[in-house]
Write a structure and sequence with these properties.
- The protein is built from 8 helices and 7 strands.
- The chain has 201 residues and is of the alpha/beta class.
- The protein has one domain (3-198): 3-Layer(aba) Sandwich (Rossmann fold).
- Strands 2-1-3-4-6-5-7 form a 7-stranded mixed beta sheet, sandwiched between helices.
- Helix 5 links the parallel strand 1 and strand 2.
Length: 201
């Protein structure tokens, strides 16, 4: 992504920082109390000691994932990422009693469909956009509940990722989505008016 595009994207979200401009009371509460809540320094320090080479972007994402997991207290967390990393450690710290199911990329569509059916309702999912992930995402969307949240990573990596993010947030199963630039969030509550909030994390 070139400098002009990045600057334009950051300036576009300035008016929505920390919930300003969010009209829905439910979305505003979620933004203020979860997305922009203060970080837990004890958790950040502990995970930082385990992953000493963690960069600033990963730390910001990890702290967000911790707050999401702590808020949702999911029964099942699905992590569709290439390998275990600091972000998975943050998810585990936020909901230590949850079942953590790692799903490695690179399987066939039918394998993903069977796996998702066996898992049941997915409360929280972290999905890294990569080649071949569309099969998993399509199956996972069918197993989301009204309280589920899906984290979509790499939404601004390239043109193809942006197009796919647009398709996901327009999907009829998705209600409110949040474009945080570093990642996107999909929610599925059918009682909420469908829209996308642009926020700078």
């Amino acid at each position: 992504m070139n400098v002009c595009t990045r600057l334009n994207r950051l300036l576009h979200g300035v008016g929505h920082a920390k919930g300003y401009g969010v009209q829905s009371p439910a979305a505003y509460q979620f933004v203020r109390q979860v997305l922009f809540a203060p970080a837990d320094p004890a958790v950040s320090d502990a995970i930082g000691n385990q992953w000493p080479r963690m960069d600033r972007r990963t730390r910001r994402l990890g702290e967000l994932y911790f707050r999401l997991a702590r808020h949702l207290q999911p029964g099942l967390v699905v992590d569709f990422a290439p390998a275990a990393d600091a972000c998975r450690a943050y998810l585990t710290a936020g909901c230590p009693d949850a079942v953590m199911q790692a799903v490695p990329p690179g399987q066939k569509f039918s394998d993903y469909s069977e796996l998702v059916q066996q898992l049941g309702t997915i409360d929280l999912a972290r999905i890294t956009l990569s080649d071949g992930c569309d099969g998993f995402v399509e199956s996972a969307l069918d197993n989301a509940s009204a309280a589920s949240v899906f984290i979509i990573e790499n939404i601004w990596r390239d043109d193809l990722s942006r197009l796919w993010w647009d398709e996901l947030r327009r999907d009829e199963r998705v209600s409110v989505s949040y474009d945080l630039y570093l990642c996107g969030l999909l929610t599925f509550n059918p009682k909420l008016y469908k829209r996308t909030y642009l926020l700078n994390l």
